[in-house]
Amino acid sequence: MATDVTRRKFLRGAGIGIAAGAALSSLSAEAAEPNGPIKIVGVCCSPRKGKTTAQALGICLEAAKAVAPEQVDVELVELAGLKIPAELVAGIPLEAGQVDDFPQVAAKLSDPRVAAIIVGSPVYFANMTALCKAFIDRCGMFRKKNFALSGKVAGVVAVGGVRSGGQELVIQSVQAALFCHEMLVVGDGRPTGHFGARLWNDGSDDISNDGFGVTTAENLGRHVAEVALARKTA
């Protein structure tokens, strides 16, 4: 009986993957509707819900929305509290009773209107969080489904505990994975114009005092939206 339950859960995840690939493959047709807004999704990979990484992504999404309020919809997806077992990537099925919440995340990314994704992670020992790595590994299902994320715009946000605490290392590590999907990876736009949004949590769980970091987040959100909208109208 346990084996049957495990198999059902495993197949359920695989089924979501197939549906995600099919939906994303139709993006170019559906998102091209002249009056239909595109969607930009921020994925927060912090295990702490609603904290500084989510705040940073919120700044990005607000700036993206401001580019063209009638043409851009935004959504923040927080992975905190979700179970995203990475072993499925290696073909290891779920154990009896083991929970997998990734299908619900995949379903959001499978919305045909999604034209851009912004991934955010705190800096843990100069790299992304384990939750972020699990998310990235599980997104391999999109690559297997005819590179379903190909052509979408992507940006990365990193929040560290000190000013130069590995934010750019995290950004480049996440970007490397996004390149594998043939995504159009962009950095924060002018005037900061580098790799992505880089913010500093000074220990107060409030990034609003980091004026430069907030500017990079605003510039990233704006740049992502501008590129995504340009692709829609091209």
User: Any idea what the radius of gyration is?
Assistant: 17 Å
CATH architecture: 3-Layer(aba) Sandwich
Q: In terms of structural class, how would the helical and strand content be classed?
A: alpha/beta
Q: Outline, from the CA principal axes?
A: globular
Mean pLDDT: 88
Order of helices and strands: HHEHEHEHHEHEEH
- In helices, the fraction of residues equals 40-55%
CA(first)-CA(last) distance:
53 Å
Largest sheet entry: 6 strands, parallel
Oligomer: single chain
Poorly predicted parts: 1-32
Strand composition percent: 15-25%
CATH class: Alpha Beta
Name of the CATH homologous superfamily? Flavodoxin domain
- Strand count: 6
Structural overview:
The protein is 44% helix and 16% strand. The model is unreliable at 1-32 (pLDDT under 50). β1, α3 (52-67) and β2 (72-78) form a beta-alpha-beta unit. α1 packs parallel to α4 and α3 packs across α8 (211-233). The protein is globular. Strands 1, 2, 3, 4, 5 and 6 form a 6-stranded parallel beta sheet that branches. It starts with a helix and ends with a helix. It has a single domain (2-233), classed as Rossmann fold, CATH 3.40.50. It has helices at 2-25, 27-30, 52-67, 102-109, 130-138, 140-144, 167-179, 211-233, and strands at 38-44, 72-78, 114-122, 153-160, 184-185, 197-200. The chain is of the alpha/beta class. The protein contains 8 helices and 6 strands, in the order ααβαβαβααβαββα.
